[in-house]
Design a protein that fits this description.
Elements lengths: L1 H10 L2 H18 L4 H16 L28 H12 L31 H6 L6 H36 L3 H29 L7 H12 L3 H26 L3 H32 L2 H21 L3 H7 L6 H9 L2 H20 L5 H9 L16 H27 L1
Helix pairs in contact: 2-3, 3-8, 3-11, 4-7, 4-10, 6-7, 6-8, 6-9, 7-10, 8-9, 9-10, 9-11, 9-14, 9-16, 10-16
The structure holds fe (ii) ion (2 copies).
The site of one fe (ii) ion has 5 residues, from helix 10.
Amino acid sequence: MGLNIKRLQRALPQKVIDRLDPYIEAADLVTEMRDPRVLRALGPSATRGMVLKRGKQGVPTRIPANHSAHFDWSYPHDHPEMRELYRRAKQHQWDGETQLPWETSVEPLDPDSAVIPDDFFDFEKLETYGIRLDRIEKARFRHSMGAWTLSQFLHGEQGALLAAAQVTEAVPFFDGKLYGATQVMDEARHVEVFHRYIDEKLEKLYQINDNLFVIIDALMSDSRWDMKFLGMQIMVEGLALGAFGALYKMSKEPLLRELLRYVIQDEARHVHYGVLALRDHIKLALSESERREREDWSFEVALLMKNRFMAYEVYDEWFSGMITRAQWRDVMNHSPGMEEFRQVMFSRLVPNLREIGLLSKRIQGHYDRVGLMKYFHGAAAPELTGDAMIAELDAELWEHRGRKRKKGRTTAA
Ligand SMILES: [Fe+2]
Ligand SMILES: [Fe+2]
């Protein structure tokens, strides 16, 4: 199939190839799934997201849900660690309206208060494809990338809000239901603060990225509670936690950094909850074949996030018709900011997959092939509190700024 598509691509004008590119990507995604059960679980969502573009067809988007609500009239204390998380979550509630410095003036075109820093993007790489932006255009472009990134965070948070509600219904642990209710509240607050930031400070909202839609669609419509957990609490939350951390490190804008600091503390609990719920379930309750299916599924979703989260919505706005989608991917892949995102995201996700038993020897070769095994030995969520995470990010930030200052001095000398 790959060969025929390549031959077809050579025969077609560039404009047509760019039109076909999203469909070719969808076909590539589906053909690379080796496990037919993963194809059955993700295939329909890939069609709805990447081919029919359901996330971009106006409101509302209806995703059918068919899980069972799990009641327990005996109200057992069945999971002490979840009970402890519930206690911590109650104590750490915060109010996004009164506790964040909304009076901060954010000037998106000013490099000192921009969401995305100067060195996020590789403008030199763009120039090799014949596009040279002046200073003002670069600032406007950075604003677009910042608004796109935060828009995807917001859409992901809406997914988390609805998924947390589903998970609260479906989870078999009673202590998990109580904890889950706090997560629903947390996610509502995240939707509130990200939306307010985009609306008041950036004044620009992008549509949901097709790949993010595929993942949300897949986990919302899957009837198995553990697949919802795996999709939302481990994959989306794990990657989001990394992405929030990367932006917290990169951005100089004080309101956004404060907002992210609060959100990261909540998200650390959410991922911790996902690991607790899945660790024993995967090791003790699932057959080897069911475990393998989940292992393959998470690998495909990790790839979906690693290779395909390419800000095509920004490309369509800025460079469609000027460079090809393949050239845009090349520019994005070379951007230091995207590399930083990938680093922090996967250093958070991979240790959690190990912790819940979804990184057996069988799949490690595949992770190695795509360069993700280097994160294997990192700390998993139960060993890392939100405070520890922020302290780690701050320490890395100071080290990075120190290196930059030193480099500046050497260059000046
Ligand atoms: Fe969230
Ligand atoms: Fe969350």
